Amino acid sequence: MKLKVYSDRLSQPVRAVIIFCKVNGIEFEEVRVNLAKRAHFTPEFSEINPMNQLPAIVDGEFKLFESHANLIYLASSYAGVADHWSPKLMQCNPIVTSFRFSLSRYPSDIFKRSKIHSVLDWHHSNLRRGPGV
């Protein structure tokens, strides 16, 4: 089953995911979601992304949202993606290696890791703004 990228090209994070796929030769089906018509609030799209934001991807049965999580997942799971895109390089970082105990608890399963990235990215983009926004 081909990767699906849910998109509205007016969104910069969507363009980042699409450009990444094109640069790395990842075949995908672009599913247009018209933000101006609030198509991201349909029940069908809410099943893919309960936060109702773009971009979101579906790879087989796996659903993922938040652009950074999407990019890390694509870099880690698709063959032919150049090494410089991959978060595997983090293993060489001395700051990261000093936290080996924490890393040992980090799931090795790409799908579980991607879900963690999605939640962390959502937290960074939304909860950190505070109640005044």
What this model shows, in words?
- There is one protein chain.
- This protein is α+β, with helices and mostly antiparallel strands.
- The chain has one domain: Glutaredoxin (3-Layer(aba) Sandwich).
- Helix content is 41%, strand content 14%.
- It has six helices and four strands, in the order E-H-E-H-E-E-H-H-H-H.
- Strands 2-1-3-4 form a four-stranded mixed beta sheet.
- A hairpin with a 2-residue loop joins strand 3 (56-59) and strand 4 (62-65).
- Helix 3 (67-77) runs antiparallel to helix 6 (110-126).
- The longest helix is centred in the C-terminal third of the chain and has 17 residues, at 110-126.
- The model has no long low-confidence stretch (mean pLDDT 82).
- GO terms for molecular function: transferase activity.
- It comes from Hibiscus syriacus.
- Residues 1-82 form the GST N-terminal domain.
- This is Glutathione S-transferase T1.
